[in-house]
Amino acid sequence: MDFSVDLIWRSLPKLLSGAGLTAELIALSGVIGFCIALPMAVARTARSRLLRWLSGGYIFFFRGTPLLVQIFLIYYGLSGFAWVRENELLWPILREAYWCAIIAFSLNTSAYSAEIFRGSMQAVPVGEIEAGRALGLSRWQIFRRILWPRAFRMGLPAYGNEIIFMIKSSALASTITLMDLTGVARALVAKTYKPVEVFLAAGVLYLILIYALTFALRVIEKRWDIRRPNPPVRAEDAGPA
Amino acid sequence: MDLHGFGPLLLEGVLVTVEVAVTACAVGLMLGLAGAVAKLSEVAALRWLAEVYTTLFRGLPEFLVVLIVYFAGAAVLTATIGGGTYVDVPPFIAGSLALATTFGAYATEVFRGAIQAIPQGHVEAGLALGLSRRKIFWRLVMPQVMRYALPGLGNLFLVLLKDTALVSMIGVSDLMRQADIARGATRDTFTFYAIAAVMYLTLTAITTAVLARLEQRANRGVRRA
Fold first, then answer.
1. Transmembrane segments in this chain: where (chain B) (predicted)?
2. Using CB atoms within 10 A as the burial measure, which of A11, B29, B31, B38 is most buried?
3. Confidence grade of residue A216 (pLDDT, cut at 50, 70, 90)
């Protein structure tokens, strides 16, 4: 078999632009997913049974079905309904593969992240929350200043893994015609009939993307290490008397 | 709900999905065990090889691995044993093998952790009893490994079950592919994907229940606090 290094170099610019779209999809759906995950995690532990039940069902569905099914349900499934196609607000979004991918990725990652945050919120020692109550903090203040910072730090390793998994699943964007890294690679293979070279190059780019992120996460985890001693308390930290 | 007679086809798809999952799991478990033993080996070359394996296949998208095994596999086979004719890798084999490779990379880490969780004293006890290294591994270490590794492996299997949907993209007639065909034939887009989703949910629920039973069995005789 003739292995063409030259082809790898020639396809690199196209693959890099695909990697750009991959990064864009992940960044956007990562942010949206995070914004859904947080209230979802809180709803999972809410006192209202209805909220618990609803968030539980949401998480069960999105964690229990393949991402591919979710993508196709949104992209092909929803467009099958006449009322969706006739809706002036929904249709401009749902007819675009780009937005369908963003929606599917966001919902999918939010379900996994919500479970991670729920777990880490429940792992915060009760005493710390009671301490907040004893200080007369409001429920929101306790959440904002005690519960969430502690929970986020504890959940960070698992959440980092979830981001890594999201990069890997983003390859499915190519199934609905998007030209992400995998999409570009598939198109190049179809054109050149050189799957070994093209997929090898795409694979290396994925590995770079994923291990760069792994490294960055390790640095962040170290910086926010809770075992590190706190800076000494100064008088002015107490605020105006 | 009108299935337009596609019900039996969907059930056939479920069967294929389960077949892919079980095949990939069986091969993946062997890869994982071999990988873990290699990672803990005294031979540096084996440790290095296992490290490369897990680094590569935990970092590559499962979908890309499926495409690589299917398309690149065919290209390599055609060039080597084809003798001028195009040689195809059967989609079922390519898909199962690809998913097994990823499963094996993650299983390597699970098994490694489980083997390392076994107190050194147990191995020493085996040595003191005059057991051979092989016997110590299969009779002493492995039964305990299953107990430690089962939760991790269970999670991996649940991930694998959902990843099987990827093989529909290379032409395996699994549940996802059958839902796709039914959608194309009936133009009833939402219903068939929704049915597929419910079927995957059912498979997940059944698996979860089976895993709970297996864990119970693996933990028999273990004292609980």
1. 20-38, 59-83, 89-107, 148-170, 190-214
2. A11
3. very high
